[in-house]
């Protein structure tokens, strides 16, 4: 299974310990939570990988989504999340490598996880996403829409993303959004992909 020796669990845990978390916006992204509330019942199994502070998962849980899961590499951020979200089931914050997960989900939310992986793992990401989604499952979220080969975060283009995902997914939507948070406005694509 694919591994990244540099952008590993220690790297991300150290970023949290050093307070170097520029991707952390401090609140849930309504692009994601509005989509969930408009399209899924509260029993849906939902995963946010590379979740970090997992604001979307905390929000959904507060709205009765009892099968919302976060996943991250970093023990430090999981503990911070649980300390802040008393009552959230600890077993729903998964700790480990995305590529090792074996559970299945109705929906996976993409929120700054794809851009944190080394670009050479992008095809493996698409394969793994397909494998953990149920037959009618979807991948929804945002991807950066600018070229940035040095990262993280790593950028990309719609053309590249279509090439990566079209083998495993039907691309229902992949388009620029004006609903991004202010600091990312004009630099994101919203994606809605259905498992083939």
Give the SSE layout.
Elements: H1 9-17, H2 30-39, E1 46-49, H3 55-62, E2 68-72, H4 75-84, E3 93-95, E4 105-111, H5 122-132, E5 133-144, H6 158-165, E6 169-176, E7 188-195
Parallel strand pairs: 1-2, 1-4, 2-3, 4-5
Antiparallel strand pairs: 5-7, 6-7
Protein architecture, described:
The protein has helices spanning 9-17, 30-39, 55-62, 75-84, 122-132, 158-165, and strands spanning 46-49, 68-72, 93-95, 105-111, 133-144, 169-176, 188-195. By secondary structure, the protein is an alpha/beta fold. The protein has one domain: Rossmann fold (3-Layer(aba) Sandwich), CATH 3.40.50. Strand 2 (68-72), helix 4 (75-84) and strand 3 form a beta-alpha-beta unit. The chain is globular, with a radius of gyration of 15 Å. The two termini are 22 Å apart.
Summarize the structure.
With 196 residues, this protein is α/β, with parallel strands linked by helices. The chain has six helices and seven strands.
- Number of helical elements: 6
Strand content: 15-25%
Distance between the termini: 22 Å
Strand order of the largest sheet: 3-2-1-4-5-7-6
- Summarize the main sheet: 7 strands, mixed
- CATH homology group: Vaccinia Virus protein VP39
Overall number of structural domains:
1
Tell how many strands the DSSP assignment holds: 7
Uncertain segments: none
């Amino acid at each position: 299974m694919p591994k990244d020796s540099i952008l590993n669990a220690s790297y991300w845990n150290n970023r949290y310990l050093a307070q170097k978390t520029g991707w952390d916006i401090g609140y849930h992204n309504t692009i994601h939570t509005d989509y969930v509330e408009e399209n899924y019942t509260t029993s849906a199994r939902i995963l946010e990988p590379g979740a970090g502070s997992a604001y979307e998962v905390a929000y959904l849980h507060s709205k009765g989504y009892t099968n919302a899961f976060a996943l991250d590499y970093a023990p430090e951020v999981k503990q911070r999340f649980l300390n802040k979200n008393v009552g959230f089931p600890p077993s729903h914050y998964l700790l480990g490598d995305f590529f090792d997960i074996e559970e299945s989900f109705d929906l996976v939310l993409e929120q700054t996880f794809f851009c944190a992986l080394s670009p050479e793992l992008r095809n493996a990401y698409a394969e793994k996403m397909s494998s953990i989604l149920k037959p009618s499952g979807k991948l929804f979220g945002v991807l950066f829409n600018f070229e940035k080969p040095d990262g993280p975060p790593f950028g990309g283009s719609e053309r590249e993303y279509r090439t990566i995902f079209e083998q495993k997914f039907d691309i229902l939507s992949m388009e620029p959004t004006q609903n991004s948070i202010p600091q990312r406005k004009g630099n994101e694509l919203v994606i809605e992909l259905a498992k083939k």
